[in-house]
Design brief:
alpha+beta; four-stranded antiparallel sheet; Alpha-Beta Plaits
């Protein structure tokens, strides 16, 4: 099994391996973690190179009140994302834009400095958004639009004045046909919200600012609150209404 590793130091003595796993799993699938309690260091092996590159973005992030240093002994290549002719119905965590992953961290309650968020933006600008993720998001947008508005229509392309009634119609159709049971992920719900156009732009356009990541973190956190399972954490108080109950969305 191939692995792509990063080295982490500055880990708080109280930090457990489970906490490390929870923190770095936002980057993608983890193969293994080598960490001795109280050592202050760890080696984390990811399944994909892109996940390791995302982890390096987190250099300077805060876990358990301690600022982490994340490095690598090698340069991990930016992977090409191969897709089939069929629109994807699922995307891996490693396929997501780095800015989107950063927003998930903030919504979860972790502390990332604006310099870390800027690094995420720069990585998206340099490498672009993966074709698999763009295909997934555009197919989602088109599928909802067709069910609500008719052939060749998209939710994001609908004028804002009638977007509310259109998305409500899409939700009703989804419930009748069982779509809601098949794919009620964050993106489906978000694109049907009043912020649908902003949400799509955030995930498909590399042109964004640090404030955009904070705003997306608020949207993620607000949706978790609406589900009734989110609770504010002390570490979250200073960052964008973070909630402590937002797993990596798939």
């Amino acid at each position: 099994m191939s692995s792509f590793t990063v080295n982490v130091s500055g880990i708080a003595p109280s930090t457990t391996q489970t906490q490390l796993h929870d923190f770095f799993t936002f980057c993608g699938k983890i193969n293994s973690i080598e960490h001795k309690d109280g050592s202050g260091t760890a080696t984390i092996a990811f399944e994909k190179a892109n996940s390791a590159r995302t982890a390096l973005m987190l250099n300077g992030g805060v876990l358990d009140g301690s600022t982490l240093t994340v490095t690598s002994d090698v340069v991990h290549p930016e992977e090409e994302h191969h897709t089939s002719d069929q629109p994807p119905h699922h995307v891996d965590q490693s396929d997501k834009p780095r800015a989107g992953i950063a927003a998930e961290y903030l919504a979860k309650g972790y502390v990332l400095s604006d310099s870390v968020l800027q690094k995420a933006i720069e990585m998206d600008n340099k490498h672009g958004i993966s074709k698999k993720f763009l295909d997934y998001f555009n197919n989602l947008d088109k599928g909802i639009g067709q069910r609500a508005l008719g052939p060749e229509q998209t939710i994001s392309g609908k004028v804002q004045s009638t977007l509310g009634s259109a998305t409500q119609q899409a939700k009703a159709i989804d419930e009748q046909k069982g779509f809601s049971k098949i794919a009620q992920d964050y993106y489906t719900k978000a694109i049907q919200s009043p912020f649908g156009q902003k949400v799509k732009a955030f995930y498909t356009d590399t042109s964004k600012q640090v404030q955009d990541i904070h705003e997306e973190a608020r949207r993620i956190a607000d949706q978790e609150k609406a589900k009734g399972g989110a609770h504010a954490t002390p570490e979250a108080a200073g960052s964008a209404e973070k909630t402590g109950a937002v797993p990596p969305s798939t």
